[in-house]
DNA sequence: CAGGCTTCGTTCAGAATTCAACTTCTTAGG
DNA sequence: CCTAAGAAGTTGAATTCTGAACGAAGCCTG
């Protein structure tokens, strides 16, 4: 009698999809990083700029920013320190909670964002969006949304 | 007369697809990493084990392995050093090219691979594959393949 | 076969990331 | 009001990653 539970291996087709996904992932990240380099920004820098510039008063609590960008508080703290040194961002105290801090976009941060965003969008188009049909794109979104929700549920401390 | 070129911003739908993609990306990477932790492996460790175990003679030249895993030679060199210390892999000289080295899976490496693979596959299924329909999966692959090819062309030195 | 390119892989220094304290403040219970 | 538990952020040390520089070996080309 069979007592072992056989592993439910991936089919060739599943495996291929998975590997393609992983490859695109890595190459795309790398390409984005490369396209931001001339502006002296990393992907992480840019994402923080995006989050802050979309936020009310161009500011977010450290914790919220960490959650929004899916990184640990520690990492964000170091990151913000670097960006503060670069003059893109500053820390500001929070009135309502004296433990709290806001990360606030500086004027230089706003300017940087305005300068860089068009190039970044062009890069996203060139290397991703414009390579997919409108239908493919909405299918992609439809497929990935449940995955995102599933993962949000599963995510523990960063 | 208009001299500026207006930025071709992303539509809401494009933006949403893009952000979902990025989110899944990061959360999935994180989840995979977490699921490998109990075995003392990182994603990078695992991917190298996969590549080596599928290779002829369970060995690959450093350069080929770096290319296969899309990382810089420098990073791979460090990585292999660590895995060598962990006993998963060893370096072996290359007969035909005296500059070259092979990274070779050790017996312990093979065993680790056999032990971990089923869990990893289960994790990939649980957090990705099984959340998508067969059709979604093949669409995904079809959509992403051209992107992968595009990026492969664009990729410079790592 | 000499000269100069290129490739292979490592190394070093500097930057980024992780992980585990730790401080300060808030909040809930008794 | 006091205390214990938890949350917000920071810090510092150890680890990992990056990018440039390097030595050694192969490959042309004349």
TrEMBL record, chains A, B:
Pfam family, one: MarR_2
Protein name: MarR family transcriptional regulator
Domain HTH marR-type: 14-149
Signal sequence coordinates: none
Lineage per the UniProt record: Bacteria, Bacillati, Actinomycetota, Actinomycetes, Kitasatosporales
Database matches in InterPro entries: HTH_MarR-typ (IPR000835), MarR/SlyA-like (IPR039422), WH-like_DNA-bd_sf (IPR036388), WH_DNA-bd_sf (IPR036390)
């Amino acid at each position: 009698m069979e007592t072992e539970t056989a592993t439910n291996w991936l089919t060739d087709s599943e495996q291929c999809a998975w590997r393609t996904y992983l490859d695109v992932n890595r190459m795309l990240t790398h390409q984005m990083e490369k396209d931001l380099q001339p502006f002296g920004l990393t992907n992480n820098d840019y994402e923080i700029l995006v989050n802050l510039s979309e936020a009310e008063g161009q500011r977010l609590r450290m914790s919220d920013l960490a959650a929004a960008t899916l990184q640990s508080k520690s990492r964000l703290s170091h990151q913000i320190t670097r960006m503060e040194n670069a003059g893109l961002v500053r820390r500001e105290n929070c009135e309502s909670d004296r433990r709290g801090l806001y990360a606030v976009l500086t004027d230089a941060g706003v300017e940087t964002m305005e300068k860089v965003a068009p190039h970044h969008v062009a890069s996203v188009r060139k290397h991703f969006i414009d390579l997919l049909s409108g239908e493919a794109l909405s299918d992609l979104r439809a497929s990935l949304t449940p995955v995102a929700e599933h993962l949000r549920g599963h995510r523990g401390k960063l």
